[in-house]
Records
---
Amino acid sequence: MASLRDAVKWLLFEIGAGYYTRKLATGPEAELRREFADFLAPPTGSRVLDVGCGPGHLARWLARRGCRVTGVDRGRRLVRIAQRLAAREGLSIEFKHAPAERLPFADAGFDLALATTVIYWVEEPRTVLLEMVRVTRPGGSVATLDPHASMSVPSIRDYCEGKGLSRQDTGKLVTWARAAGHNRRFTEDELRRLLAAAGLAELALERRMGGLVWFARGVVPPGPKVAA
C-alpha cells in the first residue's frame, strides 16, 4: 500500500508540474521560502543541496545569494522546468532527477541540505533525513520546512482572513492544508524525535506563518552516522 501511495503522489506532481511551478512562484508560499532562506542564512560560497527542489524557485534564490546550489527532484518535468528557469537567469545550478530516498551524491559533500514541504509528504521521512545527513559534512546543517500540527483548512482560512490575503493566495494555502491533512503534520515532540533519530544534534525549531509551519534545522555531528 505504501508503494502505491508513493507512486500516486509523484504521478500527481508529474502531471501537475506546471501548476505547481506557478503556485510557488508568487504569494505566501514564495515569501515563506525566502523567509526560510533568511532563517538558514548560509554563507556565500556554501555548498547547498535542495532536496525535492521542484521548479527550483528556492534554489535560484540561494544561488543569487552566492551559494553553490544543487537541486534534486523525483519529478522529471519539474527538473526540466528548474533547469530552464535557471538557464533563463544565467544561474549555474546543477539539477538532477532522483528520489530523495536515494540521493546520487557522495558522503559529506554539502554544507547544508534542505527540504521544503518534503518530509511531511514522503512515505519514508526517516530514510530521506538519513540520506540528507549522509551527504552533509560533519558540522554542516540539515533543515526542513513542514506543517505544524495545528495546520488545517479552518486554521489556514483564519490566517488568510487575518492577513487580508487574496482569494487566489488563500486557495494556494488551503490546497497545502488539505495535503497536510492527508499526510503528516508535526507536533514539536514528533518533529524533534524524527530529526534526532536521523542523528541530528543542536536542533532549532521555530514556528512561522502564524504558528502553522515549522522551520527546523539540526547539525550533523562528527563521528559515525546513524544506521538506516
---
Amino acid sequence: MKRTLWAASALIVAGALAWLLYTAQQIRQQSTRDEARRVDIIVVLGAAEYRGRPSPVLQARLNHALFLYLRGLAPLILTTGGAGGDPVYTEGEVGRAYLSRRGVPSESILVEPEGESTAQSIAAVGEIMKRRNLTSCIVVSDGYHIFRVKKMLEETGIKVYGSPRPSRGTPEATDNWVYFRQAVAYGLWKIGIRV
C-alpha cells in the first residue's frame, strides 16, 4: 500500500515537473516574439516607480509602448499598476504622466491604478476593455511576463498580441529560472490561485 502511494506521488510530481518545464519552454519562445500589429489598445504592465518617476524597467516598457503608439498601431494606451507601498503615486498614474510629458494626449491614455498583482491588474484591464467595447490589444512588458498575461486576457475573450520591451541580455541560467518561476505562477493561476 505504501509503495503504491509513493509511486503514485512520484508520478504526480514527475508529471507536474514535466508540465512546468514544457510551459517554461513556451514562455521562453513567447518572450522574444514581437507580434505587434494594429489593435484597439496598447496595455503596459506596471513595474516599480520611485516617488513619481518610473523605474528603469517601467520606463523601458513605457518607451516601447510609446514607440508602438507613434507607429499608429493603436489609438489608446492603458497603463497599469497600483501603489506598491507608495502613499502618493501608483505605477499606472506614473505611467500616464510619463506618456503625457512625451506628447500622448491625455484622452488617449487610460489608467488602471489599483492592481497589486498581475492577476488583479489583468482582471481590471479585462473589465476596462469590455466596458469600452475594445476587443484587441498589444501587451507590453518584459518578455518573460507576456505568455502568462496573454493567457489571462485571452480567457476573457480578448485578442492579445505580445510585444516585449527591449532588454539587455542576461545569463542563460537566470533566464531559465525566470521562465520556470513564470511557469509556476501560470500553473497556480490555472488552478485558481491568483498571483
---
Amino acid sequence: MGGEGIDAFWNVAFAAPPSGTVPPYLFGALLNVRTEPATYGLWIYDPNTVQNKTGFENSFSEGVTIRGSIDFNVTIASRGGHQGFVALYSSKNGNDLSSIGDTNLPSFPPGATKNDRYYFAYLFDQYLYRSKERPMEGVGLFGQYGISDGNPNRLYWTFLTGFGGTGMIPRRSRDNWGLGYYYAAPSTDLKNSLKSVLRIRNEPGLEVFYNFALTPWLSLGADLQIINPGLGKNTAVFSGVRTVIRF
C-alpha cells in the first residue's frame, strides 16, 4: 500500500494516509518492537513540523503528541496478512472550526480555541493468493479507516481500500500493480462555518498503476488518478509515467 510514491501509489491518501495529526517532518522519539504475534509502536513527538529546522527551536512549546499502535500477524486460509490499530492523542490546541467569522476572508474571534486532538484508525492487509514456487508473487487486499475529533482537526474521517499484487501475468513475475479507492471527509464544523463563502465537499478518488520490470534494476510505470476534489466543481484526471533505476 505504501511505496512512498516510488514503487506503488502516488496519491498521498495511499502512500501516507493523512490523519491531520502527524506533521511531515517529526522531532521526537519513535520506538518499534517486533514480536512473533504482533509489532508494537510508540511515538512521542512535537506536534509542529520541523521542516527547515533542527527541531530544538522551541521544541514541544505547543504540546506533545503520543501515538500508539499494534499490528497483529493474521493467517486466514493459510494466507498471511496483518490487522492493526492506531490511537493518537495530542495536547496541542487549535482554532475552533465552528466559530469561523462570516466574512469574505474567514477569521477566528479571540479565544476561539479547541483543546486537544485525537485520532483512531483500523488497518489491514491480507493475501488472497500467494505463489508457492515464487513467494514474492501474489495478490492481496488492503484497507484503512480512520476518524479524528473533527475540530480542531480539519480532517474528520477517511476510508480507503484496494487490491495490489506482484506478478500474476505469465513471464511478468517482477511487475507490480495496484487499484485503490479512497474517501475523505473534512471537518463538519469547518464545512458548516464556511458554507456561505465556500463549498467544501467530501472527496472520493480512484487510482490505478502498473509497473513494468524491464530488468531487475530498471522499471517503467504508468499511473492514472480520477478525483472528485473537495475544493472544486469538476472531476480531476491525472495521468503520468515514472522510471525507477536501482543502483
